Amino acid sequence: MSLSAESFEHVADLVLRRSAIRLAPGKEYLVETRLLGMARERGLADVEELVRQVRASGTEADRERIVEELTTNETSWFRDQLPFESLREHVLPRIVAERGPAARVRVWSAACSTGQEPYSIAMTAAEVLPPTASVEILATDLSDQVLAQARSGTYSQLEINRGMPASMMVRHLVRSGAQWQVNPDLRRSVTFRKHNLLDMLPLGPFDIVFLRNVLIYFDVAVKHDILRRVARVMAPGGVLVLGSAETVFGMDGEWSRVQAGRGSLYVVQRPATGAVPSVATGMTHTHRAAVVPALARGGQE
């Protein structure tokens, strides 16, 4: 039996209320694909029967599981390359140049899924930062399931094959039976925490925020609200990294787009108490009207 319109609407409403992600009509196949495993675990014939059961007598854990299954997104190591190139060649060197070899860098990786993104950030930092510098990465997601794997830092060969450079694998991963595990030193630099972007955001300030391939799932009003609140937990001049199909254009005047080599980043500009060094520029920002030049070659767009 295919998923009925009534059952799809119930699931879509549940996901919208709990994550702000809108499942538009036509996504029935996604619901059936993602929830089929859950239905089979319970010995049910199909997803339609699962939804009916949850509606009639489901627990809070059942509803949370449905939301988790439908909000777990695609991920890979060093995904899209350019953000990590900008991080390696421009952003991190600029921070060290401004703050010195003992620089402390705080990063937030939002919607981190099974951990490939924050560990990719940690690996990049390990390659660039001097031994006297430190990086603290907060990685968040709303799914307990993906966070459990992320905390373990353990991945199958198939998962490793999705974007992991051989040089990074040799340096930062160790064999764990038939799987690979991120080495303990690197794991210690990342803290994983359950968090919904609709809730109060983590305490900052963060020098760098990765919020990639997340905003595309939200309505304009929700995007605006998230970006406004993200700006509040970033250091003045902090760098926001979005997905290649995402932009802050038309969303919020607190952001300025800058070029960092071949990639584009967004720099927060907001009033600050006193003069705070900008992560992005080496300038000192004391007010919002400060002009933010490019991180590297090229000018502001």
From TrEMBL:
Stored Pfam families: CheR, CheR_N
PROSITE patterns in the cross-refs: CHER
EC number: 2.1.1.80
Biological process according to GO: methylation
CheR-type methyltransferase domain segment(s): 1-271
Molecular function via GO: protein-glutamate O-methyltransferase activity
Record's catalysed reaction(s): L-glutamyl-[protein] + S-adenosyl-L-methionine = [protein]-L-glutamate 5-O-methyl ester + S-adenosyl-L-homocysteine
Name of this chain's protein: protein-glutamate O-methyltransferase
Protein species of origin: Xylanimonas oleitrophica
